[in-house]
Amino acid sequence: MSTFPQPDPKDRPARLAVGVVGAGRVGPALAAALQLAGHRPVAVSGVSDASKRRAAQLLPDVPLMSPAQVLERAELVLLTVPDDALPGLVEGLAETGAVRPGQLLVHTSGRYGARVLDPALRAGALPLALHPAMTFTGTPVDVQRLAGCSFGVTAPEELRLAAEALVIEMGGEPEWIAEESRPLYHAALALGANHLVTLVAESMELLRAAGVEAPDRMLGPLLGAALDNALRSGDAALTGPVARGDAGTVAAHVAELRKHAPQTVAGYLAMARATADRALAHGLLKPELAEDLLGVLANGAALPDDGSDR
Predict the structure, then answer these.
(1) In sequence order, what DSSP letters do the residues of 85-142 get, joined into one string?
(2) Dihedral of CA 88/45/157/125: which sign?
(3) Can you give the residue ranges of the DUF2520 domain (predicted)?
(4) Which of the 8 DSSP states describes residue 302?
(5) Which of 301, 288, 193, 216 is nearest to 245 (CA)?
(6) Is 17 helix (H, G, I), strand (E, B) or coil?
(7) The model's pTM
(8) What is d(CA 140, CA 238) in angstroms, rounded to the nearest whole number?
(9) 300 band by pLDDT with thresholds 50, 70 and 90
């Protein structure tokens, strides 16, 4: 449930014609959320068959058009393309005269703030950076997940209220991010969310190799509790052999991983060293146990990753 007050329908600003440039997983979901708030999706651009299917599912009856045609029709334009493609897209739209004065131009990149939209700003557009801190599937469930989702918001001060109002209308909660802090903000989210997927996928693969028939069922309660504890307590939630200083157990882990899944050793060692550092700093790992543990981690890193049983 959003903690921000929801606007009364009679107090809402004029409904806007919404266009989407880039029908990936994010754009159609945000446009569908804006549609629930009373705005009107009028055009969407997509190239791949998958993007066209997403647009048809989330925005039925909204016509597919070129990016320039989308901007011609829309008052509020969502630029939902990959980070690396965003600067070139903005420059191209501005140079070709597709951007109109007074047009709200919104990008959803976590990496960039509002300055990436400077070419459009010079053409008279109103630049907003609204990044949903959420993972998207490209299905209707994404619209539901926006309820209570935090958005990293960056915009000129005079547009701050407009940016925050759009986020609230989509069911989200605005969190103001300074322009210069956007790369650090995005790195933090990638570290937590993207790397989590890698860790979970590797853990499930190892459990299958160990003979567990339903690794997802085994991990679900454990990971859910670990995530909840970490969000509530931070480093105080650290558990396991590294935090306890069980050097022998960690050495056995490294040996087994080298034998059965050598591709996971580097990641295990890196995370174990980071865990040890945090456990030491917060008084969870006793210094007298840390020496042996760190020695195991150093020796494990020095061994060749050849999969042999050592």
Answers:
(1) GHHHHHHHHHHTT---TT-EEEE--SS--SGGGHHHHHTT-EEEEEEE-S---SSTHH
(2) positive
(3) 149-275
(4) H
(5) 288
(6) strand
(7) 0.85
(8) 36
(9) confident
